[in-house]
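Protein: Endonuclease III
Species: Streptomyces filamentosus
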Amino acid sequence: MSSSTPGKSGRTARTGEPGTTGKNVKAATTAKGATTAKAAPPRKAPKAESHLAMVRRARRINRELAEIYPYAHPELDFRNPFELLVATVLSAQTTDLRVNQTTPALFAAYPTPEDMAAAVPEEMEEIIRPTGFFRAKTKSLLGLSAALRDEFGGEVPGRLEDLVKLPGVGRKTANVVLGNAFGVPGITVDTHFGRLVRRWKWTDEEDPVKVEAVVAGIFPKSEWTMLSHRVVFHGRRICHARKPACGACPIAPLCPSYGEGETDPEKARKLLKYEMGGYPGQRLSPPADYPGKPAPALGAG
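Structure follows.
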């Protein structure tokens, strides 16, 4: 029989296979009085979800995530728009943790676009080497810094159409900067976001631009930035790529992909990451309301 565990705020998370209750097995008595198990007839396929029902479920997931992660935030350390822009470019093909461990030395050496534009490429490469693809990233950082110096007076522009013209900056990076440095709503479609919205059947699109457009049509603009943080938080902490912790997921009752991962509650809890699992997060300098431990500096521990 399926078991359940209470989630946060009274929610109940399923921890067994949906629909596998005792009603699925009927007791049949033979002529000799012996009891045998008789399988129930095949279950009917669930009805296709209407678009309206999907939108309502999606918005409920967002509300649930807001309660689970009231402290959701960008997981890159930054003090100004320029630092966030640079950190986001560096975050490609690596973790935010590794970026956060690398940027203190980078910004100590090159605190402004003017400083970075004048950097010796080989010296910058050595600093950002831990983030991977350091030669290509150095080229992008030198190019975007020069563009900021020459075309924008050394300031990061606050418009998407200007940001995406900078070397190494696409829509994802632009939306991160706009949403978190300028307060301009944007949806950040990274690998975590794309994976979860497909698992939740909000869309089956693979192209990030198309995913962004679909999700933008589901939620009001005012929710876009925080929705992005909540979904990414959930993807990093519970709904992992290879083995999601379904049995420890507070929104399992709303998830059409429940069961893709570990459904046993105890085993699922062992899969939880960062503050959910009692471990450090990705930021060396997290917000004051973050409930987890700060990440260690590069080379520490």
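Remarks: Residues 1-41 have pLDDT under 50 and may be disordered.
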